[in-house]
Design brief:
There is one protein chain. The protein has 314 residues and is of the alpha+beta class. The chain has two domains: 46 residues; 244 residues, Jelly Rolls (Sandwich), CATH 2.60.120. The strands form four sheets. The chain has a seven-stranded antiparallel sheet, with helices on one face. A hairpin with a 1-residue loop joins strand 6 and strand 7. Helix 2 crosses helix 4. It starts with 11 loop residues before the first helix and ends in a 13-residue tail after the last strand. GO terms for molecular function: dioxygenase activity; iron ion binding; L-ascorbic acid binding; oxidoreductase activity, acting on paired donors, with incorporation or reduction of molecular oxygen.
C-alpha cells in the first residue's frame, strides 16, 4: 500500500509569525520606495531650480545694462511701482516708509580713495578668515567673519594675533563711519526721509566673492531674493562697490529682475547703488567667472527697535 504524505497544518502561532514577517518586508519595501521617492522629488526640485535660474532668468527675458561701468553717474534714478510690502507699516513709520520706490546709482557720494581704504580693511581682515567656498563676509558690528565652512569672531582672533594693529585700527573704524554717514545722508535725501527717522540695521557687512565652488548655503550668493523678506528689518538697501567690473573681476553684475527684462548694474570702485528693499526690487548677483569682487552692504530700517550703533574696535 502506498504511503501517504502527511501535510502538517500550521498552528496559530506559526501563521501569525509568517504574517508578521510578510508585513515587515512589505513595510520595509514601501519605506524604501517612499525614501527613494523623496530623494527623486528633491533632485527634481534642484534640477528645476537650476533650469529656472539658468534659462528663465538669463535667457527668457531681455537683459539691459541699466548702469554701465564705462559711464560716470552723478545721479541715476529708475522708478518702480511700490509693492504692497509696506502697507501695514505706513501708520507705524509714516515719515520713513517708502512713498515712492526705485533704484538709485551715484558715483560721487564716496570717493575712490575712501573706497580703496575700505578695500584695504576687508583684505587685511581676510588674513584671519576666508570661506572655503566662493563667498566670505566681514561684519564689523558683530565681529563675524567667514572662516572655512563657518564663522569666527575677528575680535577674539585679534587677541592672539602677534600684530593686531596690522589687521584693524581705530582709523579703520573712523573711515567706515565716515562712509556710512555719507550713504545714510544720500539715502535719506533721495527718498525724502528725515535722517533721524532712518536707522542703520543689521546685517551690514563687507563681502568678497570669488570663483570657488560653493561649500555651504552661505556661498550660494546668486539666488534671486527680496531683502525685506530675507532680512525682515530692511526698508532701504545700499551697496558700495570696492572693486571694478571687467578690471578686477568678470561676472558679478547686479541684476534687478523685472517682469519682462533684467536690468543690470555694473560695479565700479566707489559706486553707490541703493534701492527700496521690498518685492518691487527682486534681485540677484551674477556668478563670478574670474577674479574677486568686493563690496559693502549698508542697510537701513524705519523701525527704531531694529537699529544698531556704529561698530568700534574691541
Amino acid at each position: 500500500m502506498p504511503t501517504r504524505k502527511r501535510t502538517l497544518k500550521p498552528n496559530a502561532q506559526q501563521t501569525e509569525d509568517d504574517l508578521a514577517r510578510k508585513y515587515f518586508h512589505h513595510e520595509l519595501a514601501v519605506s524604501r520606495v517612499s525614501a527613494l521617492s523623496k530623494v527623486l522629488i528633491g533632485l527634481i526640485i534642484v534640477v528645476a531650480t537650476f533650469f529656472f535660474t539658468k534659462f528663465y532668468i538669463y535667457a527668457k527675458v531681455e537683459v539691459i545694462t541699466m548702469v554701465s561701468a564705462s559711464n560716470n553717474y552723478s545721479r541715476f534714478y529708475y522708478e518702480v511701482p511700490c509693492s504692497k510690502d509696506y502697507q501695514e507699516e505706513r501708520k507705524l513709520f509714516k515719515d520713513c516708509v517708502p512713498k515712492r520706490c526705485g533704484r538709485v546709482v551715484m558715483d560721487s557720494v564716496v570717493t575712490k580713495q575712501e573706497a580703496r581704504k575700505l578695500l584695504r580693511i576687508v583684505r587685511n581682515a581676510m588674513v584671519l578668515g576666508g570661506s572655503n567656498g566662493g563667498a566670505s563676509i566681514l561684519d564689523l558690528h558683530t565681529g563675524a567673519i567667514s572662516k572655512g565652512n563657518a564663522f569666527i569672531n575677528i575680535f577674539k582672533a585679534l587677541e592672539s594675533h602677534p600684530e593686531p594693529d596690522q589687521i584693524l585700527t581705530a582709523e579703520d573704524f573712523m573711515i567706515y563711519k565716515k562712509v556710512k554717514d555719507k550713504i545714510h545722508s544720500a539715502v535719506a535725501a533721495e527718498f525724502e526721509v528725515p535722517k533721524d527717522k532712518l536707522y542703520l540695521t543689521k546685517p551690514t557687512f563687507f563681502s568678497r566673492l570669488t570663483t570657488k565652488p560653493a561649500k555651504t548655503i552661505h556661498d550660494e550668493y546668486w539666488h534671486p531674493h527680496i531683502d525685506k523678506e530675507t532680512y525682515g528689518s530692511f526698508h532701504y538697501t545700499s551697496l558700495l562697490y570696492l572693486t571694478e567690473y571687467m578690471e578686477d573681476f568678470r561676472g558679478g553684475r547686479f541684476f534687478f529682475i523685472d517682469k519682462d527684462t533684467n536690468r543690470t548694474v555694473e560695479p565700479v570702485t566707489g559706486r553707490l547703488s541703493f534701492f527700496t528693499s521690498g518685492s518691487e526690487n527682486l534681485h540677484f548677483v551674477e556668478r563670478l567667472k574670474e577674479g574677486a569682487r568686493y563690496a559693502i552692504t549698508v542697510s537701513f530700517t524705519c523701525d527704531p527697535e531694529k537699529a544698531i550703533g556704529d561698530p568700534r574696535l574691541k
